[in-house]
Design brief:
Blueprint (H helix, E strand, L loop, with lengths): L1 H10 L1 H10 L11 H10 L4 H14 L9 H6 L2 H6 L4 H15 L13 H8 L7 H10 L12 H10 L8 H8 L6 H11 L7
Length: 203
């Protein structure tokens, strides 16, 4: 990690200032599993507290402990019971699609470690409701890939606009051009950008 920090400080004075202000790089590693992706789906477009409550009810309905949800356990729960737990009809479809594809091995979490970043994105976005951003977060914080750049992330766009004194929120191509100097440590640069805005707390 020291090599990444030195590279970012050397190649980008703005990033050097952010690193000095934020301090040491500290990231909690998350898991690569059906449970973690199902959790990500439940959390989409909800506040952390509301999503945690709903996911807790889903675990209860599936008779699973925290971090131990399986496709088989989820599929045993009647759809109306999952709806009663707080899942929207749309998200119910998403998590069941994930469960069915994982159970049939169409989605294989064990195989992800051996795949290139783009291949991981293609593999997981075949699941309904799983977009590129969701997979990029998994790449960054579960698979610990060092050079991921989520150009659509609002926090990244806001942090870049603020730190680099831009008049408007940067477009994806502008972010890619700016971030070229951060290669091959764009994941670390993004972590510092999020921290410069003091969020998200889970990263």
């Amino acid at each position: 990690m020291r090599k990444a920090i030195l590279h970012l400080k050397k190649t980008d004075p703005v990033m050097a200032e952010i690193i000095a202000r934020v301090g040491p790089y500290r990231k909690a590693k998350s898991e690569v599993s059906f449970n973690s992706l199902a959790r990500s789906i439940v959390y989409q477009q909800l506040s952390g507290k509301a999503a945690a409550t709903i996911f807790g009810r889903v675990l209860l309905a599936a008779k699973c402990e925290e971090n131990c949800l399986t496709p088989e356990a989820l599929l045993k729960v009647k759809p109306e019971k999952l709806r009663a737990a707080g899942l929207s009809q749309q998200k119910l479809g998403y998590v069941r699609d994930l469960a069915e594809k994982t159970k049939s091995r169409l989605v294989d979490f064990d195989a992800l470690h051996a795949l290139e970043d783009q291949a991981v994105i293609e593999h997981l976005t075949q699941v309904k409701g799983v977009g590129v951003w969701t997979v990029q977060m998994l790449l960054m914080f579960a698979l610990e890939r060092p050079d991921v750049l989520p150009t659509a992330d609002l926090g990244i766009r806001n942090a870049i606009q603020k730190a680099y004194g831009l008049e408007a929120s940067p477009k994806p191509k502008e972010i890619e051009a700016l971030a070229e100097k951060w290669r091959p440590y764009r994941t670390v640069a993004c972590w510092y950008l999020w921290r410069s805005l003091d969020g998200p707390a889970a990263l």
